[in-house]
Write a structure and sequence with these properties.
Elements (H helix, E strand, L loop, with lengths): L1 H27 L4 H26 L5 H20 L3 H26 L8 H29 L2 H11 L1 H9 L19 H5 L2 H30 L4 H20 L1 H4 L5 H18 L6 H16 L1 H12 L5 H30 L1 H22 L13
Helix pairs in contact: 1-2, 1-4, 1-5, 1-6, 1-9, 2-4, 2-15, 3-4, 3-6, 3-7, 4-15, 5-6, 5-10, 5-14, 9-10, 9-12, 9-13, 9-14, 9-15, 9-16, 10-13, 12-13, 12-16, 15-16
Length: 386
């Protein structure tokens, strides 16, 4: 588990850093808000179209193959901007980064459920999402300071270096990646719509997606908003990192929270907390006040991912875990694809207040959806092969 966690932290740091680097480099090249919205949306285009296919592929092969291909693809995407200094290179890098990231991440998330047995599943999902928090803290922070002290193009090279160690680890030793329960390559595979028709699974996918979209919107708009009020790249990176610090803290406390509240209650309350934070955000300009709001957002959305992943694992039919994780990515990235385009246009036309107020309302609606759904606590029992 420690090696899986280490790989995920390095790769996720490179991914989260790349999104900040692309946005700020595009601003440096004179891009508009709408253009940046397109760039951010391109990170989600391939995941929307191909995550389910990647999941089906991962259910049939050793996880090492897609993880290696995905990590190598991320390295290649990060090399494009320093080699070709243009918006076209940023478009290509965003597109390839989105695809490669899911190719490595979907099988990795699927194997977490079988590491060290079913009794450690909740702990493992908490650990991996804590690793995501570390990465989403370190990635923007490293990127911000790299841009300020080295330059935009050099920052991409720093992020590329983060993917080298995972590739070396996978080349030297691959046995630390366990296998999930896999279907036979000749077995009949049901439609993905069969998964979507499972009401509890569908509700979890939608609510988790909306919660993640809040984080996505914050990552998208803070660089634009911070740039408009004169914040430096390092300050912007630091505020983005605060979200990750808060999510790391709250995820570490999930084992204690589940003793007091049901998992469905935790998911609903976390979404409500994020809704409050987004309602307050556009009325603040002081960096410390923005950091405090970022901390509240981190507390709110930090619970959503591990709780949703635990629900998805136990609600999914055996042999289709990676496919279900792929469906989760498709739903998540469909919102990631639409939100930058929609809110980029809304922000240009109506300003920041409308953007954050609208997202606050959407989050509150998702919280009520979870409350009405009657989700039960996730079953700790193991998955059995069909």
């Amino acid at each position: 588990m420690n090696q899986i966690l280490f790989i995920s932290i390095l790769n996720e740091s490179a991914f989260h850093g790349s999104r900040v680097a692309v946005s700020l480099y595009a601003l440096e090249l004179g891009a508009s808000q709408f253009t940046i919205g397109i760039l951010v949306a391109l990170f989600a285009l391939c995941p929307v179209l191909l995550s389910i296919a990647i999941g089906r592929f991962a259910d049939r092969v050793s996880p090492r193959l897609p993880v290696v291909l995905g990590t190598a693809g991320m390295a290649a995407a990060l090399l494009l901007p320093p080699l070709f200094s243009s918006l076209t290179a940023l478009y290509a890098a965003s597109f390839l980064m989105g695809l490669a990231h899911q190719l490595y991440l979907i099988p990795l998330e699927a194997v977490i459920g079988v590491v060290d047995g079913a009794k450690n599943r909740a702990r493992n999902y908490a650990l991996i999402t804590m690793g995501f928090s570390v990465a989403s803290f370190s990635g923007p922070l490293v990127t911000g300071f790299s841009i300020d002290y080295l330059g935009h193009r050099q920052a991409f090279l720093v992020l590329t270096a983060l993917t080298v160690m995972p590739l070396l680890m996978l080349a030297i030793r691959s046995t630390f990646l366990p296998k999930t329960v896999q279907r036979s390559p000749t077995a009949r595979h049901g439609s993905v719509l069969d998964l979507w028709r499972l009401r509890s699974l569908r509700t979890t996918l939608i609510a988790g997606s909306i919660a993640l979209s809040a984080w996505d919107l914050f990552n998208f708009y803070l660089p634009i908003y911070g740039h408009s009020i004169g914040l430096s790249a390092s300050v912007i990176g630091s505020i983005l990192a605060v979200v990750s610090i808060a999510s790391f803290i709250v995820r570490g406390g999930i084992p204690f929270l589940v003793k007091k509240l049901t998992e469905a209650e935790i998911l609903a309350y976390s979404i409500f907390a994020a809704a409050v934070a987004f309602a307050l955000f556009p009325f603040l300009s002081n960096p410390y006040a923005l950091a405090a709001i970022a901390f509240l957002i981190g507390l709110g959305v930090g619970c959503a991912t591990p709780i949703a992943m635990s629900f998805i694992y136990v609600l999914t039919p055996p042999g289709r875990i990676a496919e279900s994780m792929g469906l989760r990515k498709t739903v998540n990235h469909a919102t990631h694809l639409l939100i930058p385009l929609i809110f980029g246009s809304v922000g240009t036309a109506f300003g920041f207040v409308t953007v954050f107020a609208s997202n606050s309302i959407i989050l509150a609606a998702a919280g009520f959806l979870v409350r009405k759904a009657g989700l039960r606590n996730s079953d700790p029992g193991p998955k059995q092969a069909p």
